[in-house]
Design a protein that fits this description.
Helix 1 packs antiparallel against helix 2 and helix 2 packs antiparallel against helix 3. By secondary structure, the chain is mainly α. Helix content is about 75%, strand content about 0%.
Length: about 90
């Protein structure tokens, strides 16, 4: 397996773990938000969205400016960002 596929696989594993953490936080009753105070159940989703955007920018710069082997990782991060946006749009509406 070449380095680009390994980088993409690491990104996929990261997002699987991140989704599992979000699910555990949201299912657990310890972190529920009140009507006026967002708690970790809401903030966990937005923290991972911000982290996703940061990773997308970093991998995009590495792939297209520095010519590193991170194009597949950039595509993974972009796909996850699109999924987050769709999820937020349907969840809020």
């Amino acid at each position: 397996m070449n380095q680009e596929k390994k980088n993409a696989l690491k990104s996929i594993v990261f997002y699987i773990i991140a989704i599992l953490v979000i699910v555990v936080i949201n299912i657990s009753g310890k972190f529920k938000s009140g009507p006026c105070t967002p708690n970790l159940d809401v903030l966990s989703v937005f923290i991972f969205i911000i982290l996703n955007v940061i990773l997308l920018i970093i991998n995009g710069v590495k792939a297209f400016v520095m010519k590193k082997e991170t194009k597949l990782s950039t595509i993974v991060h972009l796909a996850v960002l699109i999924i987050w946006i769709i999820y937020i749009n349907f969840k809020v509406v």
